[in-house]
Amino acid sequence: MRPLPTLLTLALAAAFGGFVASAINAHLDNRAEAAPASLVIPATAALPASVAGQPVPSLAPMLERAMPAVVSVNTKQVVRVRNPYFNDPFFRRLFPEVPQERINESLGSGVIIDASAGLVLTNHHVIDNADDVQVTLADGRTVKAEFIG
Asked: What's the CA gap between 1 and 101, in Å, rounded?
């Protein structure tokens, strides 16, 4: 077996393989560029100026009356966490387990249903297992709250 013709054959085969691979790659790139997504999303939802000849009423007066009743509900919960290294028997023997605590904070919203009694309605998952609940009113005041039921 002569090394020069074998080497020449391998070089030609490699060059041909590279040519085929680059042609396939170019074809796939052209196909991807040829079909751009034609999804058009309007910037704002357009409301009709009138319906059946009658002007559409504005929601602004209703929102101005309702917005002061919307409050922000902030909760904190102390959670005991275990260090993952203490799951290893080697570390458990060498070091006593030190309990660690982490404070989980969450945020939700609620609605004042009786301002004179100070009652706020919110979803249960917002205050579930919370140790501290604070309600921030629309005017910026923050008051401590408690779960009634």
From this structure: 76
Tokens 């929601």 -> residue:
59
Q: What is the mean pLDDT of each run of 10 residues along the chain (149 residues)?
A: 72 83 76 57 66 78 88 94 71 71 92 91 92 94 89
Question: Can you give the residue ranges of every domain in the chain?
Answer: 66-145
Q: Are strands 142-145 and 54-55 parallel, antiparallel or unpaired?
A: unpaired
H or E segment and range at residue 37: none
- Fold type of domain 66-145: Thrombin, subunit H (2.40.10)
Q: How many Cβ atoms sit within 10 Å of the Cβ of residue 52?
A: 5
Cβ neighbours, 10 Å, residue 120: 23
The whole-model pTM stands at 0.54
Residue 19: half-sphere exposure toward Cβ, Cα within 13 Å: 6
* Euclidean distance between the first and the last CA atom of the chain, given in angstroms as a whole number: 92
| CA 132 distance to own-chain centroid | 24
